[in-house]
Structure formats: C-alpha cells, structure tokens
C-alpha cells in the first residue's frame, strides 16, 4: 500500500499548477506520469512534459493494458466478462438509487411545519440513511465481483501482466514522484488495478487531479447535477485504490454541481459523511500527509448544512 | 387581452404627447408581463397587424391605435416558455408591407429571411448554443461523394475536436446540414456538447439538396444515395464504426420525412433517427389539402402507417405546439411505440423554425448518443 504524500489538484487544462506542486514536494528528479485516463490519447503528453521541464516518463498504463488484452486472450475474455457483470450490477443499483435519491431530495425540498421541525428532520435523516445503505450494499456487491475476479485469475501472476509490472517497477524506481492525470475514471482505475501499481510506488509522493484524484481515493463517486438526461443522482461507483482516505474529490465542482442549491449540497455532504466532499476546481489544492488533510486557502468543501466552507474548516 | 401596460399607454396618451414620449423612451418593446406580451408600433399608418405562424390563431392580429397619436399596440396571450417569431404588416397609403418590428432588436434568421422574435416569460436561449471559448472547436471539411442516384456532389463533414484516425466514430447524417449550421447553431452545439462530454465525439455529414421538396419526399433515389453512396464512401474515407448501431439520420420538416423514409426503405441500416417537426402529413379518408408537393409525402406516410416495420431502434421526435404539423407528429408517436421502437417525444411552445430545432438539439442528440459525462473528468 502507498505510504507517501498525496497532493490533489484542481483541473489542469486551463490553469496549470502541477509544476509548482511538484516543486513544493522538493522533487528534482524524474516524474512518472500516468495518463491512462486519456485512453488512446495517452501518449499525447507533450504539454505536460514541457510544463514539467521535460523530466517525465509516461508509464503507458493504457497501452500496456491493450498489450495484455492482445497477448493474453484468456484474461481478456475474463476482463470482458467482469465488465459485463459490473455493468449489470451498476444498472441494478441505478434502478433503486433513482427512487431513493428522489425521495431524499423531495424531503430536503420540503419546508417543515412550524413547531414540528423534528418530524421532517427525522424523515430526512432516514431517507439519507437509506441511500447510504444502498451505496454500501452496492459497494459490497461490486467489491465482491472484483475479489472473485482477482481470486480466480490472479492477474499480476500472469506472464504478460507480470512482465509489464516488472518494467513498471523499474521505471518507477528511477522516479521521485508520480503524477496521475484525469480522463475516464473507470478506465484509469481498472488499468491501474490490473497492474496493481500502488504497492510499487512505496513512499513516493503522488500528485493527482480530476479523475486521477478520484481513482486514488477510497471510494469513487460519479456525479453531475445537471446532465442532459435524468435527474443527476450521484453514484457510488466502486472502491478506489485507497492511496488516501477521508476525502471525496469532486473535480469541476463549479461546472458539475449546483453549488448554489443548499439542499442538494447538504444532501451530498450528508450522504457521503464522514468523508469530506472536496470541490476540486481550478487552482485548488489539498495535501494528505498520510494522517491528515491540509487544504490551501480557496479550496472548499461541501458542508452538511449546504454551504461551501474552507476545506480545513470544522 | 388587456394588460397593465395597455392601461399605462392609454393613461400617458391622455396626458399628452410629451408625457407619452417620455414614458415610451424608458420601455423596451415588446413587453412581457407573465403570459401577456404587448407589442407597440409608432407610425402614421392606416393599419398594423401582427403576422405570425401560430397554428390555430388568426394569422394576422390587428393592432389598436391610441386615438390622436401615431401609437399602435397589441396585447396577446403567450404561454410561458414560448418563442414567437413574427413580422409586422403595415398598411400605409393602401400599400401593405411586411417588416421586422422596429422596436425589437431580437431577430431570427432562416433561408427565407429574418423575423422578429419575442421570448415568452421563462424562455432562455440555451447557453450551450452560444460559443464557449473553452470548448475545443471541431472542423468542417468538404468531401466529394460519387453518386449514381443523385449525381456527384460535395458534402460537408464535421470532424470533432481532437479527431484521430486511430479511433472509430459514430456517424450522424444531417439533412439540410449547412442550414442547421447557419440557422440552428449546429456546429456550436456539437463543439460544446462534445466538449462537455454530453455527446461522444461524432463525425457528422452535413448534406444538402438543391431539389429538397422532391428528393426529401420519399424519393427512392435519395434513400439510395444515403445507403449506397454516402454512407459507404464516408465509411471508407473516415474512421467510422461502420455498423447500423452507429448510424443516425436527422432532419427537420421535409428533412425528417427524408430521414424516416430512407430508414424505412433500408431497414436495419440505420439504428437511430432524430426527427424534428416532421412534415408527416397523412390522410385517413379522402385527399389531403396541402398541395401537390405533399402528394408523395402523404403516400409515404399512409403506407408507413399501414406497415411501419422497424425503420430504426431508437427515435427522438420533436415538434412545436404552434405548428400545423403537431397533429401528425403526435399521431406518429403511438404508432412508433406499437412497432416496438424506443421513442422519446418532446414538444415545445414554438413554431416551425430553426431556433426551435436548435433548442431541442441537446435533448435529442444526447438521448440518442449519450456522452461519457459520468465517466470522464479531465
């Protein structure tokens, strides 16, 4: 398991803070880059390389996984089957989730009858608890699928995966830091998991943003408050890699969440408590030292009463 | 229909021309108060009428003159969320002229000209239809198509931002595509919705016809052009998925007829259709009254109603409630559902115009082609 520092940054496309984050960690050597979330554009990391003064080496996790699919058809079939099981599991979860979230949101929208505030609050708490229980149930079901897959196939012991993993270990050994970019969060997460990358990183600091920040946490939450279809119920997708704990990152929060809607924000914060829901917008930063979090000024989190507060505020 | 504003107009008119001028100078017309919209015209004319295209209302609604002034006004009921395109018909010295409303800066264009537009309470131009400097722009290129059916021609092809030859893209074929780009902000919408991950990256063929009323009215040559010429040639020239599940046809008005007719003639070739304000005229008895240009359309829709088959698996259908076509579109939906299609139907308080079609693009396209919004965080 990873034991070093983790730095979570806001999105980097228009406001790059990666270089200063790496400098602040006193990293002077090579930086390993994970851009697997960019999928087939994984290798297009020129801008990042220039931003870091040319001292990056791309771990090519996406390309390596593609190689595994080609060279190990048996494992490839098993991965596809796992993919199908996961997809069905998520569809079943969504079916229940939509109703449970709508009930909770409706209760959050209601105004209490004067003098009987406790009645409404009790119903709200129970409705939120029902969603939390559903989330936990889903997390267990998804974890079971992953555990069964790992137990049956032991991917890291298979020849092609082991060879890539050995190469990855050698590359990482020559690097002082690892940065994990955003992109497709599930592709990123599953490919990192395929090579069981985290134990190879040992104490090296991790700098991650957007989907990278999400994949490294304990739980991955997919979210959007105003999608073109559907009501926008955040989904607890599955466990992350667990490089840090206590925080759930919400990249692009200003764009993806209705931050002015106190009831929605309160619901989100209460649903995922005790984790702190961190609004990872451009120019924000939060540091995990292995035990506690430190948020830079301007880095906000969602409060259980529906407002945004400084990440470090109680 | 009376409004507070009408009372104010009459009150200030009684106070004299200076009071009226001063009061009018502070107003932006037309004025929207809840469901009431008040139009004003100034001029020494004999008559002023509101010309609109709302089915069910008299096509020309007369303004009222405030006695002793050159001021004319009209207050009408406009439901919330409406968009209303109109012109003013002004009669002066016996001569009738159709003009844009001089007091209203809001305009909408179409291939036939420019109309004034009034937005009912609650209507907003969708922000995704406006240029977003953060959105990476796609590119429109010209591509030659050789066609036995309709003759060789150039089509425009939209390639999404970050287009890669190593990827495979779904194909969307848009009838009257260049008009969609010009009048319905299609390129801006595609750039924005792809950037926001509400749509996957798509390749879009923007086709046009110089004889659309004929070719789009169930002309078998047009269906052949799509299925035998256009799509196969695009699939060999561009990195497209090349399967029915990744082929969509789209169009408005006669373009919707062309889409449905082609998919019906080539069942199993196209998987999804986006049909806006389709001119799906049919008859249950006797002849139709829409003129000879509709003859092949009515023949097609009547035949389709008898035997819909399965032209596609998924269809998004939309129509404005102020259109005369609303009856035909409403009638189509249960028929499609009975045929086992997955149908999403949407109505808007709008007419038969490009901005109505623009405003439904996000809903329709993202339903037919959901983007990776929930999965991608860049």
Look at the structure and give the CATH class of the largest domain in chain B: Alpha Beta
- Tell the overall outline of chain B: globular
The CATH level-2 architecture of the largest domain in chain B is identified as 3-Layer(aba) Sandwich
The gyration radius over C-alpha positions of chain B equals 23 Å
Q: How confident is the prediction overall: mean pLDDT of chain A?
A: 95
Percent range for β-strand residues of chain A: 15-25%
What share of the residues of chain A lie within helices? 40-55%
Helical segment tally of chain B? Answer: 11
Mean pLDDT of chain B: 95
**What number of structural domains do the residues of chain A give?**
2
Reported by name, the CATH topology of the largest domain in chain B is Rossmann fold
Give the overall shape of chain A, derived from the CA principal axes: globular
Structural notes for this entry:
The complex is a heterodimer of chains A (314) and B (378). Chain A has 314 residues and is α/β, with parallel strands linked by helices. Chain A folds into two domains: 6-70 and 154-310, Class I glutamine amidotransferase (GATase) domain (Rossmann fold); 74-153. Chain A has eleven helices and 14 strands. Chain A has helices at 18-24, 46-51, 61-71, 73-109, 117-153, 159-173, 185-194, 198-201, 211-216, 253-256, 262-272, and strands at 6-9, 30-34, 56-58, 175-180, 183-184, 206-209, 219-222, 235-239, 247-251, 276-280, 285-288, 293-295, 300-302, 308-310. In chain A, α4 (73-109) packs antiparallel against α5 and α5 crosses α11. The two termini of chain A are 29 Å apart. The mean pLDDT of chain A is 95. Chain B is of the alpha/beta class. Chain B has two domains: 4-119, Sandwich (Immunoglobulin-like), CATH 2.60.40.10; 127-368, Alpha/Beta hydrolase fold, catalytic domain (Rossmann fold), CATH 3.40.50.1820. In chain B, the strands form three sheets. An eight-stranded mixed beta sheet of chain B has the order 11-12-14-13-15-16-17-18, sandwiched between helices. In chain B, α1 crosses α2. The mean pLDDT of chain B is 95. The A-B interface holds A 11, 13-14, 37, 40-41, 182-187, 210-211, 214, 222-224, 227-229, 235, 251-252 and B 134, 162, 164, 166-167, 193, 198, 362-363, 366-367, 370, 372-378.
């Amino acid at each position: 398991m990873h034991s070093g520092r983790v730095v979570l940054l806001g999105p980097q496309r228009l406001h790059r803070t990666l270089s200063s984050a790496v400098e602040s960690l006193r990293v002077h050597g090579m930086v390993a880059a994970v851009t697997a979330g960019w999928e087939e554009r994984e290798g297009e990391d020129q801008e990042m390389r220039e931003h870091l003064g040319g001292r990056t080496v791309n771990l090519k996790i996406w390309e390596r996984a593609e190689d595994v699919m080609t060279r190990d058809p048996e494992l490839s079939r098993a991965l596809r089957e796992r993919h199908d099981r996961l997809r069905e599991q998520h569809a079943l979860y969504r079916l229940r989730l939509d109703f449970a979230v709508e009930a909770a949101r409706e209760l959050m929208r209601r105004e209490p009858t004067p003098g009987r505030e406790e009645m409404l609050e009790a119903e709200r708490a129970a409705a939120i608890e029902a969603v939390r229980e559903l989330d936990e149930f889903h997390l267990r079901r998804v974890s079971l699928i992953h555990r069964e897959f790992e137990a049956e196939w032991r991917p890291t012991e298979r020849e092609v995966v082991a060879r890539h993993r050995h190469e990855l270990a050698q590359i990482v050994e020559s690097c002082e830091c690892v940065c994990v970019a955003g992109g497709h969060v599930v592709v990123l997460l599953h490919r990192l998991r395929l090579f069981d990358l985290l134990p190879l990183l040992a104490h090296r600091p991790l700098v991650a943003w957007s989907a990278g920040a999400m994949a490294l946490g304990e739980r991955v939450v997919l979210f959007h408050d105003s999608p073109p279809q559907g009501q926008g119920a955040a989904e607890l997708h599955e466990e992350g890699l667990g490089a840090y704990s206590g925080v759930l990152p919400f990249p692009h929060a200003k764009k993806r969440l209705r931050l002015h809607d106190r009831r929605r924000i309160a619901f989100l914060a209460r649903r995922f408590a005790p984790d702190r829901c961190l609004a990872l917008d451009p120019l924000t930063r939060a540091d995990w030292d292995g035990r506690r979090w430190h948020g830079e000024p301007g880095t906000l989190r969602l409060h259980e009463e529906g407002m945004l507060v400084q990440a470090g505020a109680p | 229909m009376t409004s507070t504003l009408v009372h104010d107009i009459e009150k200030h008119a009684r106070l004299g021309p200076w009071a009226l001028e001063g009061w009018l100078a502070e107003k932006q017309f037309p004025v929207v108060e809840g469901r009431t919209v008040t139009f004003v015209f100034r001029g020494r004319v004999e008559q002023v009428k509101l010309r609109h295209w709302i089915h069910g209302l008299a096509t020309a609604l007369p303004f009222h003159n405030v006695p002793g002034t050159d001021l004319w006004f009209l207050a009408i009921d406009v439901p919330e969320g409406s968009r209303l395109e109109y012109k003013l018909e002004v009669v002066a010295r016996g001569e009738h002229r159709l003009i844009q409303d001089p007091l209203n800066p809001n305009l909408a264009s179409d291939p036939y000209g420019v109309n004034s537009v009034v937005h009912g309470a609650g209507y907003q131009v969708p922000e995704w239809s406006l240029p977003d400097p953060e959105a990476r722009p796609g590119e429109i290129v010209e591509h030659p198509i050789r066609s036995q059916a309709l003759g060789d021609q150039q089509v425009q092809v939209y390639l999404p931002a970050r287009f890669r030859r190593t990827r495979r893209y779904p194909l969307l074929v848009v009838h009257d595509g260049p008009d969609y780009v010009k009048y319905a902000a299609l390129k801006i919408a595609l750039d924005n919705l792809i950037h926001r991950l509400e749509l996957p990256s798509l390749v879009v063929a923007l086709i046009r016809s110089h004889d659309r009323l004929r070719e789009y009215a169930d002309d078998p040559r047009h269906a052949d052009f799509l299925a035998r010429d256009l799509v196969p040639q695009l699939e060999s020239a561009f990195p497209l998925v090349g399967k029915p599940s990744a082929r969509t046809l789209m169009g408005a008005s006669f373009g919707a007829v062309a889409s449905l007719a082609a998919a019906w003639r080539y069942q199993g070739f196209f998987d999804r259709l986006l049909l806006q304000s389709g001119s799906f005229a049919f008859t249950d008895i006797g002849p139709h009254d829409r003129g000879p240009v509709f003859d092949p359309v009515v023949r097609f829709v009547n035949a389709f109603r008898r035997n819909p088959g399965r032209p596609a698996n998924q269809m998004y259908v939309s129509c404005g409630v102020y259109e005369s076509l609303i009856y035909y579109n409403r009638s189509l939906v249960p028929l499609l559902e009975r045929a086992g299609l997955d149908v999403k139907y949407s109505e808007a308080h709008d007419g038969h115009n490009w901005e109505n079609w623009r405003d439904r693009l996000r809903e329709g396209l993202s339903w037919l082609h959901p983007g990776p919004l929930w999965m991608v965080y860049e």
